[in-house]
Amino acid sequence: MDILVLNSGSSSLKFQLIDTGKEEVLAKGTCERIGLGKGSIVFESIKIEGKYTIEKNMADHEEAMDIVFALLQDDEKGAISNIAEIGVVGHRVVHGGEKYSESILVDDAVIRDIEKLSALAPLHNPANLMGIKACIKIMPGVPQVAVFDTAFHQTMPKKAYMYALPYEYYQNNGVRRYGFHGTSHKFVAQKAIEFLLAKGIKAEDSKIITLHLGNGSSMAAISGGKVIDTTMGLTPVEGLVMGTRCGDVDPAVLPFIAKEYDMSFDDIGNMINKKSGLLGLSGTSSDMREIVEGIESGDERCRMTMDVFAYRIQKYIGSYTAAMGGLDAIVFTGGIGENSGAARTKICENMSYFGINLDPAVFDARGSIVDLSRERNGKILLIPTNEELMIARDAAKFI
Question: What pLDDT score was predicted for residue 211?
């Protein structure tokens, strides 16, 4: 069965066509600058070598989907002969609030809920809905499934997700910790549990900390397969130091900066989301590869940036180990987690107290599941994430 996986942004559309029987990607691509002019589509499939790129203006997501379907069915480049071969569409939806702890078949009520939750994810949920509505119009009768970034984290207890603010903000506006990257955390946690089972650790007894480290970074404490805490909060800004997001900060710093620099709420939001993190600390780049290059060339601000990045993660490893009452494994995933031996080494530095002893011989490991621990006991795992496959698996349940 073929499943189409969509990740719709405000002006972009990422897609993958997956054969769930073989768990094989048949085609994938990205539509950029939808509704902005000078649009482009990058397309790959099992029928062609390399990437096929075309310049094409797309007025809206419906027009972008028409182009995608034309490419998927193209005699020379496509992966299917007819749209009818697509059994279901899985849509990434960023925010599901408290209501959705699982993926769900989209109907009018679900669409209304996603619209209401746009107040909590104004940059993402409206864009995700564009893709859903475009597919409903173009593919009437084909099941559309919403897969929520927040869903996997909804097993958190109240003590973990509540903020110590006046309670009415939670009651009236849903102000609480939700967490994000849930699809990625779920995928690698399942893989880690399978790995640990071979080591004699039962799934229900497992204590895992997953580290999704990329331009956006988050961690989750997963006990017995269920999330008990995660670093991102009401929004993806809280928690770790990220590419351009600040992560944890004294809230009183923000009105202080606003007053000192005559900044508006929008200015502050832009600063903590787009000008902070690795970029803000280093003053040079939001890319961990360039931070590492800076360290190697003697740049002290890059060195300090790496120290802050790793130290924040180490603190969360300690607190999550305490919260779970033990630790069986930490899992590195995401662009940085999967590819930066330098970042992994710094994070694991001085962590032998928790049984975390990184083997220098696997410094350059990437691309597959690898036991990075010196003792090969599964304490440190590298597991490449696959959010699209996780979405496809969830969507397949509705056929």
Answer: 98
Given CATH 3.40.50.720, say whether it is the number of domain 2-148: no
Distances from the Cα of 386 to the Cαs of 161, 299, 338, 365, 367, in angstroms? Answer: 26, 34, 12, 17, 12
- Name the burial class of residue 307, with classes exposed (0-12), middle (13-18) and buried (19+) by CB atoms within 10 angstroms of its CB: middle
Domains 2-148 and 200-382 share a fold: yes
| Choice among 2, 113, 149, 371 that is catalytic | 149
Q: Mention every residue, 6+ apart, whose C-beta is less than 8 A from residue 186.
A: 152, 390
User: What is the residue extent of each domain of the chain?
Assistant: 2-148, 200-382
Closest CA to 41 of 63, 62, 28, 56: 56
Question: Percent of the chain beyond pLDDT 90?
Answer: 94
Whole-angstrom CA distances from 83 to 20, 70, 140, 385, 391 are 16, 9, 11, 28, 19
- Convert the pLDDT of each residue in 321-365 to its tens digit: 999 999 999 999 999 999 999 999 999 999 999 999 999 999 999
d(C-alpha 101, C-alpha 154), whole Å: 6
- pTM of the complete model: 0.94
Instruction: Identify any residues that bridge with 330 across adjacent strands, giving them in sequence order.
Output: 209, 380
Is 75 considered catalytic here?
no
Structure tokens at 144: 């559309």
Residues 97/179, Cβ–Cβ less than 8 Å: no
* Helical packing angle, 125-138 and 108-116, nearest 10°: 160
CB 210 within 8 A of CB 332: no
With a cut of 50, which residues of the chain have pLDDT below it? none
Given CATH 1.10.1660.10, say whether it is the number of domain 200-382: no
CA distance 30 to 8: 10
Beta strands in 72-197 (DSSP E): 86-93, 104-105, 144-148
Q: DSSP secondary structure string, 285-338?
A: -S-HHHHHHHHHTT-HHHHHHHHHHHHHHHHHHHHHHHHHTS-SEEEEEHHHHH
Which one-letter DSSP state was computed for residue 373?
Answer: B
